Amino acid sequence: xxxxxxxxxxxxxxxxxxxxxxxxxxxxxxxxxxxxxxxxxxxxxxxxxxxxxxxxxxxxxxxxxxxxxxxxxxxxxxxxxxxxxxxxxxxxxxxxxxxxxxxxxxxxxxxxxxxxxxxxxxxxxxxxxxxxxxxxxxxxxxxxxxxxxxxxxxxxxxxxxxxxxxxxxxxxxxxxxxxxxxxxxxxxxxxxxxxxxxxxxxxxxxxxxxxxxxxxxxxxxxxxxxxxxxxxxxxxxxxxxxxxxxxxxxxxxxxxxxxxxxxxxxxxxxxxxxxxxxxxxxxxxxxxxxxxxxxxxxxxxxxxxxxxxxxxxxxxxxxxxxxxxxxxxxxxxxxxxxxxxxxxxxxxxxxxxxxxxxxxxxxxxxxxxxxxxxxxxxxxxxxxxxxxxxxxxxxxxxxxxxxxxxxxxxxxxxxxxxxxxxxxxxxxxxxxxxxxxxxxxxxxxxxxxxxxxxxxxxxxxxxxxxxxxxxxxxxxxxxxxxxxxxxxxxxxxxxxxxxxxxxxxxxx
Length: 508
Ligand code: SF4
Ligand code: SF4
Known about the structure:
Blueprint: H1 33-38, H2 49-63, H3 65-73, H4 85-90, H5 97-112, H6 114-118, H7 130-139, H8 148-152, H9 159-172, H10 178-189, H11 198-216, E1 231-234, H12 245-259, E2 263-264, H13 282-299, E3 303-306, H14 310-318, H15 320-324, H16 335-343, E4 352-353, H17 354-363, E5 379-381, H18 385-390, H19 399-411, H20 442-448, H21 450-463, E6 467-470, H22 473-482, E7 493-495, H23 496-503
Parallel strand pairs: 1-2, 1-3, 3-4, 5-6, 6-7
The structure holds iron/sulfur cluster (2 copies).
């Protein structure tokens, strides 16, 4: 950390000068045999990796029509080139979204198109060599799958899907990333990313109850494994111990308490995060998600609510229905999905985001607040990329932007927006999303945070902003780590429910 410096803010935020090769290197740590084999992948790079990689690419092109369209449709117009935070921060031309896609497109052309087979040089086609494979491992782990570039592409080409496909191919030949795959293994084994076992979780929650009692004088409960509770809360495990995440967990608990809602956490399914999405592997995505279904069935809950976690909400909103049966479109041949459909209370949106849950109560005047409790804060809101571009809230377009802001304005008096070219659907990734929140990628994470830090600095200078509110566990961790490198206070970042927690009247 000591030798990682923040890049200078740009005086005029235009396309940065190129520094070819500035991010060349081995990429993130490679998963060892135990980690790889735990997920059913080859333990190390297989001897016939070339043939297997091409076969896997063929399989994915057949399975995901979008991938084939993305390989063929790009006209190299360049509209996406300066839209990636990693390109802006690193100035490496291979971090331009179009160039990142071309790492795969050039191989696709060589093996799956006639011109590429006949005249490869003329059409920019490349053999899949060991150097190319290494380049994939490096540069496809410099994409946080944030989808910002796709917002600006006239053809809607989604680099995130290309990155996911590349990572899936890498895993299939035994060349996976340590951080992501290790975490998925922990969820399968223990139930959460941290490997926190049930008894430790129970202790943590009991300690939290004591802390809140000491603070407020009120018995706010943080229940675990309560059969027959109305709500099952699925939240990122960082909420159980990390700062500032835990303050949002306290906020959720206070909302449930103040509204008289019976709720529970689950020791078997104590993780909202689903890194199966980051590695582009739908089997892993489903396996992680099925723990949630099992917990919901065993506990007999009526509603499933998801805590503050960006990609987890994308998975819940976009994929849980077909993966687990939570939400519309459950597979009628999946008997457990059907059991869950019968069990859940469909007067409520399934699943709901905790912000939807809280905002619904606020709209129905079921909660009351002392907004002055947040007067020490001048707040701005960072839209997390997976919420902004991969989901909705409130059942209408743009609800994912309005609802968190509505909550902030209901619980605090001082709120300002950042530059609109960097918020809502155009928001920048925090720099640590997409399975890159690991210390071996710290240089990339610091550089990738540059565009968000630049506009944060503007509202700090112009409006005295001193609180950056977010609804994503990864954003909270990433910002807490990189903001001090940019000269901000570490404690400036926090959750929307941290603000709720400050202001809510528990006996209102
Ligand atoms: S990090 Fe985001 S903007 Fe950059 S290439 Fe990946 S999806 Fe596109
Ligand atoms: S904006 Fe779309 S079509 Fe244009 S270069 Fe980027 S990916 Fe290709």
